[in-house]
Specification:
alpha/beta, 6-stranded mixed β-sheet, 12 strands, about 15% strand, binds flavin-adenine dinucleotide
Length: about 350
């Protein structure tokens, strides 16, 4: 039997925050944090699906006593995890965490709580439950009739396999909540269905429908548009891809792109002198899209290999060929949409992440 003044259950954002405040307000009180997992961070350590991030802005989500200094307002899961771990370490809170200790029950008697764990029993004057709001051992998975017949891979974001290779696979995301809208852009535009509640019947032919936060790798092809915000880098990248992937096969070949860009060249070359000036090259960019204009400038300068202030069809072709070859990791001459998104979004040469 171990005794303390305050017992905190959980070393996630809440538990570490509670410990910090307790130390500040009542430095003489003894306390312990019981944590079932080997790590600090709770949610932000558990969830590892691609693109996992906060939905709240970090300037308000973070602790008031340790303001968020990151540059991104919606931070990646790993950054939040590190923030919680650093907070615990800096305050010496981590020394109070008893990992690998699962709380099984608590009883109040006299003036104390008796708290049973899978290792030992604690007594405490105060019990502070910071154990979160969902089951850690397995994510919510409704019972779908026929799920056993599904031959594809069924993935729940709460237990994302580290080695899951979903590039180039047909994917169905079931649910259209926060996790879905985080996951999908992380992969690039997905040829799959975002299935909301109520659409289950129709979707079942394609794949098994799971909870609001699950992903299925489907065996059957489905075609769907994800609507990215207008003017966003994703929107521009999607536009580019769709324009080039005319038969909607989910990839573009390098040859296709070269052919298409050659046509574009001729269209832009208003004075038909076989050279593009920057004005001709960037003529179609909306005037309020300064970032895209800047990106096009970088690209134009790269194409202009002989630095004469104009781009010839040959220079444009050389540029595209080199760029696409660099993206084409498999070397099969095909660029998938995911490859395109990964290579261009956030790349100042193409689509900067922030818009103006
Ligand atoms: C993908 C995702 C994104 C999210 N984004 C946001 C957001 O942007 N804004 C927002 O406000 N919220 C968000 N949330 C909710 C998020 O969980 C909370 O904001 C916050 O992280 C919860 O912190 P917590 O410490 O209360 O709980 P948790 O992070 O769940 O931590 C609970 C801890 O208690 C431990 N524990 C549980 N039961 C026991 C037991 N019996 N014995 C011992 N230890 C136990 C767990 O192992 C865990 O470490 C998000 C959640 C998810 C899953």
């Amino acid at each position: 039997m171990r005794d303390t003044d305050v017992l905190i259950v959980g070393a996630g954002l809440s538990g570490i925050g509670a410990a910090h405040r307790l130390q500040a307000a009542r430095p003489r009180d003894r306390y312990a944090i019981l944590e079932q997992r080997p790590a600090i961070g709770g949610t932000w350590d558990l969830f590892r699906f691609p693109g996992v991030r906060s939905d709240s802005d970090m300037y308000t989500f973070a602790y008031p006593f340790r303001p968020w200094r990151g540059s991104r307002s919606l931070a990646a899961g790993a950054e939040i995890r590190q923030y919680i771990v650093d907070t615990a370490r800096e305050g010496g809170i981590d020394r109070h965490v008893h990992h690998g200790t699962t709380v099984l029950g608590a009883d109040w008697s006299g003036d104390r709580w008796t708290v049973r764990t899978d290792r030992d029993t604690w007594t405490a004057r105060f019990l502070h439950l910071c154990a979160g709001y969902y089951a850690y051992d397995r994510g919510h998975l409704p019972d779908f009739p026929g799920v056993g017949d599904y031959a594809g891979t069924l993935v729940h974001p709460q237990a994302w396999p580290e080695d899951l290779d979903w590039a180039g696979r047909q994917v169905v995301v079931i649910g259209s909540g926060a996790t879905a809208v985080t996951l999908v852009p992380a992969r690039g535009r997905v040829r799959g269905d975002l299935i909301a509640r109520g659409a289950v019947g129709a979707a079942a032919v394609v794949a098994i429908v799971v909870s609001a936060v699950a992903v299925v790798q489907a065996t059957q092809k489905v075609d769907v548009e994800i609507d990215y915000p207008e003017g966003s880098p994703q929107d521009f990248a999607q536009d580019w891809f769709e324009t080039h992937d005319r038969d909607h096969v989910g990839y573009v070949t390098i040859d296709e792109v070269l052919k298409y860009e050659d046509k574009v060249f001729k269209r832009f070359d208003a004075d038909h002198d076989g050279k593009l000036t920057f004005k001709e090259f960037a003529g179609g960019i909306p005037p309020d899209q300064a970032n895209y204009l800047a990106a096009n400038h970088i690209r134009f300068d790269k194409m202009d290999a002989d630095h004469d202030g104009t781009v010839s069809p040959r220079e444009m072709e050389d540029y595209y060929r080199a760029f696409l070859k660099q993206i084409d990791k498999k070397g099969d001459g095909k660029i998938t949409e995911a490859e395109w998104f990964a290579a261009t979004i956030g790349n100042p040469e193409w689509y900067p992440t922030s818009v103006n």
